[in-house]
Every structure is written in structure tokens, then in C-alpha cells.
Design a protein that fits this description.
Layout lengths: L2 H21 L4 H4 L10 H16 L25 H21 L8 E4 L2 E4 H27 L13 H10 L12
Antiparallel strand pairs: 1-2
Helix pairs in contact: 1-5, 3-4, 3-5
């Protein structure tokens, strides 16, 4: 995989994992719960993410990213009957995205594709997806944290543990690697 694609792929995978690690801390009812003042459940946000990825990256070279068959408004309706059904839908969208990324060559990154009739290079469309996924991942993590309250397990350096974490890092040899591979 081309180097620029590797970085985007890793960051997208990181966002996917953050969502899944948040979800793993919740019971089934919490996944569908609405936090006061917010009208979407975590399941609805996951449905939207998957629907968006499926639409955008299916036949992306030859079709507009906003497919005629996509029902975006329906993506915000949490109608999953089980966690398994939610996860199957979730995985389908990400599979479409990752299959698309694996098919892209370095020479194609500057090719123009369209999303709602707006031209983007493939590189820009990938960056757009990364930004969009990070936005919704942050929403999901925050909702999960609010739902778990004091039982929340940090997905990063826990509050109050920065000094300890940094001490370990600076006692180690310098290395080159993707900072989120440890996640």
C-alpha cells in the first residue's frame, strides 16, 4: 500500500477501534440509549457512519459518492434488534472503505471523483472520510463516557497518569512507528 494511504488507513482503523472499544464498555441497552439533550444513540451514529462509507466508497471511481439508493435520513433511526445486527451493518461499511483503499494506487490519488457533484481528488475524499469519521468517533466516545460515568475505562492516557506514562516512554529507546499501533 502506498505510504500516504497507509497513514490514512491507520488513522481510520484507529477511529474504528475507538468506537468499538467504547461500545465494548456498554451493555446492550446503553448502545441504544439517548443521553439527555442529544437525540442520537450510539447505534444510530454507527449506522450513519457505515451507511456513509458504503455509499461513498462503492464504485467510487465511476459513480458519485452520494448514491441514489442511499437513505441518509434513515441512517439516524436506530432500528437494530440486536448488537450482532448492528455490528454486521457496521463491519460492512468499513469493509467497503478498506477494500477501496487497498485498490487505490499512488497514481490515482490525484484523480477526481465526485461527492454530491463536488469534485475531490481521491486523496481529498479519503481525508474527508477521515475527518468525518473522527467527528462521529468523538461523539460516540463522549456518549459512551457519559453513559458509563465513573465506570468508564480511559481509551487514552488516564487523567492523573501523564507523568507515569511519560516516564515510561522516555526510559525507552527512541523508535519510529505509528503512535497508535499500541492501541
Amino acid at each position: 500500500m502506498e505510504k500516504r494511504l497507509q497513514g490514512i488507513h491507520r488513522l481510520l482503523m484507529y477511529n474504528k477501534r475507538l468506537t468499538e472499544k467504547s461500545l465494548n464498555q456498554l451493555d446492550d441497552s446503553q448502545v441504544h440509549e439517548h443521553v439527555q439533550g442529544y437525540d442520537l444513540s450510539i447505534a444510530a451514529l454507527m449506522k450513519h457512519i457505515s451507511g456513509c462509507l458504503t455509499s461513498l466508497w462503492t464504485n467510487f471511481r465511476s459513480e458519485d459518492g452520494e448514491k441514489p439508493w442511499r437513505n441518509r435520513e434513515d441512517e439516524f433511526i436506530d432500528d437494530f434488534k440486536s448488537r450482532e445486527e448492528l455490528m454486521e451493518f457496521w463491519e460492512r461499511g468499513w469493509a467497503v472503505l478498506f477494500e477501496a483503499i487497498e485498490s487505490i494506487t499512488a497514481e490515482e490519488l490525484d484523480n477526481i471523483i465526485y461527492i454530491r457533484n463536488e469534485g475531490h481528488t481521491i486523496q481529498q475524499a479519503l481525508e474527508r472520510s477521515l475527518s468525518h469519521m473522527a467527528y462521529h468517533t468523538g461523539q460516540i466516545v463522549l456518549l459512551a463516557k457519559l453513559l458509563k460515568g465513573d465506570e468508564w475505562s480511559s481509551l487514552s492516557i488516564p487523567k492523573g497518569k501523564t507523568e507515569e506514562y511519560n516516564k515510561k516512554k522516555f526510559e525507552s529507546e527512541k523508535s519510529i512507528g505509528f503512535y497508535k499501533d499500541r492501541f
